[in-house]
Design goal:
The protein is an alpha+beta fold. It is built from 17 helices and 19 strands. Helix content is about 30%, strand content about 20%. α7 (about 215-225) packs antiparallel against α9, α12 (about 350-355) runs antiparallel to α13 and α13 (about 370-380) packs antiparallel against α14 (about 385-400). The longest helix has 22 residues, at about 1-25.
């Protein structure tokens, strides 16, 4: 009797558990990020606009046309819009999340715990050690083959390689040139050349003496033996650049080539400027290994030596914390010389020239209209052949005015365990970690520095942008192999005849990590937070929103 009763009770419990399980929402329907706000149903379409186009920028307005359509109206043609819109700082966040955390009180969450639509969501950031991401089961696209993604970092290339060889990490970035052969000869490792165009440059700020004198800047341009630097510190395949923009990009290398090394002519020019015995200054750098600067400390000392021997300039070498260095250098506050570089974010010459030499960029001091006015005209022309004459003029002006000295186009490489399926490094952007299959539950990726923040609307640092790309997606993206623009959150963005109106159609059924649904208002809210200086959500890490400003010729609604 007791056995029969027990069986009945167990059966009833089993039925109840099945019914209860059937009533539970599926994994895709469960929010994986706790949120402190209610979802805003799509209702009144959002828009952001400048009063008029007199402010000088490219964007006149951004408006939600309907739930899945966003229209970008430009003040002037912008044929490069798709290549820019695919870049990480133009990622899309939930408007509810921005409204809650894009303020002083919520800034810590804003900078350290982004919410996006990507294949991974952020789990924990153990400062100084690692960042852990988890697979997002509600992802709209092809889901990751593994559950946990970990980002770690180490400054030294040798330390990263040792971790890879020991199997404690699965892929590393920025191999030291001296380690190329070691990886290529190791049957357990895969050598991954990186095809990203890049440039290292020696910069100076013309609002500080003596760099306000064009003759001083030209003397430094002629007084540096760039070939010696490339030969001694760079991997095979690296070259001395003829122009600021790498030659693989159309119109990158039109116009006159850079100055040849001539120490005698450089010293004579420095004497004409009133410095026959040189002067004292400082060389600043950050100790972060990059493809364009594989040995930061050694290269900084080499510059110190050449400046003293070739020009009589005595320079102290100062290493700065990475975040402070980026902030000070890009805002034009370093009184001296500094080492910085650039890796291509998207496949267009505007990425190099328009970012660095825009009217709104204070990095090199007072901007030069001889450069930025020509670039603004060239950026409105879609045909590279038609735009060539303008880029000749701009490149020649850069050579004449010497805001900086292009030093090296670095050959670089990554490496991975040979057990990884589809290990890669894209020409533009970081690897797409969800496309990799490590054959186990956890994939550990090691880069060369800790992110500055994870709110990448307001970051320019590659070590910040790489983890952001796993979490936050853009309207368009870059293909793994070719770097061509492909659909992402938008199924496409189409232009009118003169590229002054771009209409983007959003993908249906996309969900953010917090469970809210993607719609056109999220796109408008995200772009408005970056491009509109008067927007309540225009809060970030530095507040500069540099990519929004420089790539679209300035922020709208800036208070005078």
């Amino acid at each position: 009797m007791k056995s029969k009763t027990l069986y009945i009770v167990l059966a009833l419990l089993l039925v109840a558990s099945v019914v209860l399980a059937a009533c539970q929402p599926k994994a895709e329907e469960v929010a994986v990020v706790e949120r402190a706000y209610e979802e805003i149903a799509y209702g009144e379409p959002l828009s952001v606009a400048a009063p008029d186009c007199e402010y000088g920028g490219k964007i006149a307005s951004i408006a939600a046309v309907d739930e899945l359509t966003v229209e970008f109206t430009m003040c002037k043609p912008d044929p490069a819009f798709p290549t820019k819109a695919a870049f990480t700082p133009f990622g899309i966040y939930p408007q509810e999340w921005l409204n809650t955390y894009a303020n002083v009180e919520g800034q810590e969450t804003l900078l350290s715990h982004p919410v996006g639509t990507g294949p991974f969501y952020l789990d924990t950031w153990a400062r100084g050690d690692s960042i852990t991401f988890k697979k997002f089961d509600g992802y709209w696209g092809e889901k990751s083959a593994y559950d946990t993604l970990v980002f770690r970092w180490a400054t030294e290339g040798a330390a990263r390689l040792l971790e890879l060889q020991s199997g404690t990490v699965d892929q590393i970035t920025n191999l030291s040139p001296d380690d190329y052969a070691t990886v290529q000869e190791d049957a357990n490792l895969t050598f991954l050349p990186v095809a990203n165009p890049n440039v290292l440059y020696l910069a100076m700020t013309n609002t500080f003496e003596p760099f306000n004198d064009i003759k001083v800047r030209q003397a430094i341009a002629m007084g540096i033996d760039r070939q010696r630097i490339v030969d001694n510190f760079y991997a095979e395949g690296s070259v001395v650049p003829s122009h600021f923009t790498p030659c693989s990009l159309p119109n990158g290398c039109v116009g006159d080539a850079w100055y040849d090394f001539d120490a005698d002519a450089a010293k004579a020019l420095l004497a004409e400027a009133g410095y026959p015995d040189g002067f004292a200054t400082t060389i600043y750098y950050r100790d972060v290994f990059r493809g364009y600067l594989p040995e930061p400390g050694l290269v900084a000392v080499e510059f110190q030596t050449q400046l003293r021997d070739n020009l009589g300039i005595e320079a102290d070498v100062v290493v700065m914390e990475s975040g402070e260095f980026i902030d000070e250098s890009t805002n034009g506050r370093l009184d001296g010389l500094y080492l910085l570089g650039w890796g291509a974010d998207y496949p267009h010459v505007t990425n190099f020239l328009d970012f660095h030499f825009a009217a709104s960029n204070p990095q090199f001091g007072d901007p030069h209209p001889e450069i930025y006015e020509v670039l603004e005209a060239a950026s409105q022309i879609g045909d590279p052949a038609e735009a060539e004459a303008l880029y000749v003029e701009a490149n020649n002006a850069i050579r004449e005015l010497v805001p900086m000295v292009p030093i090296a186009n670095g050959a670089s490489a990554s490496a991975a365990l040979n057990t990884l399926e589809n290990a890669h490094f894209r020409p533009f952007g970081a690897p797409l970690m969800a496309k990799v299959n490590p054959g186990k539950d956890t994939f550990v990726y090691m880069q060369n520095a800790e992110p500055i923040s994870l709110f990448c609307q307001d970051e320019t640092d590659g070590e910040s942008l790489a983890p952001c790309q796993q979490v936050v997606e853009t309207l368009l993206g870059y293909a793994i192999d070719s770097g061509n623009v492909v659909p992402e959150l938008a199924t496409g963005c189409t232009a009118n005849a003169d590229s002054t109106v771009w209409t983007c159609t959003l993908r249906e059924g996309v969900t953010f990590h917090d469970g809210t649904k993607l719609d056109a208002n999220d796109v408008v809210a995200s772009w408005a937070a970056g491009i509109d200086a008067a927007n309540a959500n225009h809060i970030g890490n530095t507040g500069a929103f540099e990519y929004y400003s420089y790539l679209f010729d300035g922020l709208m609604n800036i208070e005078e």
